[in-house]
Amino acid sequence: MRRIYEPQNLMEAELLLGMLDSEGVFARLDGRDLVGGTGELPALGLLGLAVADDQARHARELIDAYNAACPVADDEPQSFPDVLDC
């Protein structure tokens, strides 16, 4: 297993786990149990997504595509400008 990405928070980590799973990539989330120690532990680097070595490149491409995604123009609610509505 190779650590390929450090999510910003647990919500992003869970979203990426689901996305990778839907694409047939098994991923493991390291550090999930450490999130409760924020304040006592360093804030960065607690979470990490790990995948099998042979799936690392494909998983990284999927995550890069996720990070590069932009909302569709004129497809956001008027009450929440600049918020992506999923």
From TrEMBL:
Pfam families referenced in this protein's UniProt entry, alphabetically: DUF2007 (PF09413)
InterPro entries reported in the protein's UniProt record: DUF2007
Record domain DUF2007: where: 1-65
Name recorded for this polypeptide: DUF2007 domain-containing protein
